[in-house]
Write a structure and sequence with these properties.
Nuclear Transport Factor 2, Chain: A, about 30% helix, five-stranded mixed beta sheet, alpha+beta
Length: about 100
């Protein structure tokens, strides 16, 4: 399931410089498969989520807020080795539990 995504143009420039990834690439995530949790590290004045999903067979970490039927993208980067390992473990456990 593809969602409409938005982002702040300045944040996109910053993300490109820092991570080499355009925030609009989040449109290619299959949002029905994104594993996300609420970011409670601080008060962002809106519900901010951290999720992991695949684009072109590569795992990405996406930080976003849901605004109606739109995902507002705050950050998008390639997942690191630890995050990939954790994602694989969680998806294997999720599929084992549903089988």
């Amino acid at each position: 399931m593809h969602m409409h995504v938005t982002c702040d143009p300045l944040k996109n420039e910053s993300n490109l410089a820092k991570h080499g990834v355009d925030l609009s690439s989040a449109a290619y995530l299959d949002w029905s498969e994104v594993m996300a949790h609420v970011d409670t590290r601080r008060d962002y004045r809106e519900v901010r989520e951290i999720g992991f999903g695949v684009i072109d067979e590569r795992l990405f970490c996406v930080v976003f807020t849901q605004r109606g039927d739109t995902m507002h993208i705050i950050s998008l980067r390639k997942a690191n080795h630890r995050e990939v390992r954790d994602y694989v473990e969680q998806t294997q456990n999720r599929h084992a539990d549903s089988g």
